[in-house]
User: Which sequence fits this backbone?
């Protein structure tokens, strides 16, 4: 009799311990994202199935939905898990995932804030320094930034502004393959300025 109570005691401890472990495992288990709910990953429930052409095929349970997917030799992907019934679509999952990733990259790219960078040139700049400045302009434009090119004339140098204007026009012309002119070249006081934006 004593041994019987001992067995019951340890059995209760085992059951309680198992319940605690099961709860912890359940809590730490991560649910897949909606975009990952496809094929055998779709949960039990009712589904409104839409085919590849966008036509509604009706309401199916999980078993029927998977069977339909297998018969048509195409993936079944949940596109709305919050509705009742859930909405699933017959499609190529890998292609769908690729398009989603591409769309996310494009959205992220458009969301990037364009910064106005400035490159200052001297009317007496030598060829080596000019090439270095041009490389900087190319770098800024490729990063998606706008570039303000400026040339300041000091003292009597303003009398030779035509020469500086010619140099700047040539620079802008050389950049037309990677840039568009947002603000055309103009002389304000003793300084020429122009703003370029990356080509689309």
Assistant:
């Amino acid at each position: 009799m004593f041994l019987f109570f001992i067995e019951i005691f340890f059995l209760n401890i085992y059951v309680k311990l198992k319940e605690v472990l099961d709860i912890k495992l359940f809590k730490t288990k991560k649910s897949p994202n909606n975009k990952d709910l496809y094929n055998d990953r779709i949960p039990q429930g009712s589904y409104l199935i839409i085919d590849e052409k966008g036509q509604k095929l009706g309401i199916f349970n999980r078993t029927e939905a998977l069977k339909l997917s297998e018969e048509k030799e195409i993936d079944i992907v949940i596109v709305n898990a919050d509705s009742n019934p859930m909405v699933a679509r017959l499609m190529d999952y890998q292609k769908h995932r690729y398009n989603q990733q591409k769309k996310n990259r494009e959205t992220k790219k458009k969301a990037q804030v364009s910064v106005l960078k400035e490159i200052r040139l001297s009317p007496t700049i030598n060829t080596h320094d000019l090439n270095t400045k041009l490389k900087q302009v190319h770098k800024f434009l490729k990063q998606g930034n706008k570039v303000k090119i400026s040339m300041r004339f000091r003292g009597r140098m303003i009398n030779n502004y035509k020469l500086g204007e010619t140099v700047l026009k040539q620079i802008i012309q050389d950049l037309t393959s990677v840039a568009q002119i947002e603000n055309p070249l103009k002389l304000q006081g003793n300084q020429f300025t122009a703003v370029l934006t990356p080509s689309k």
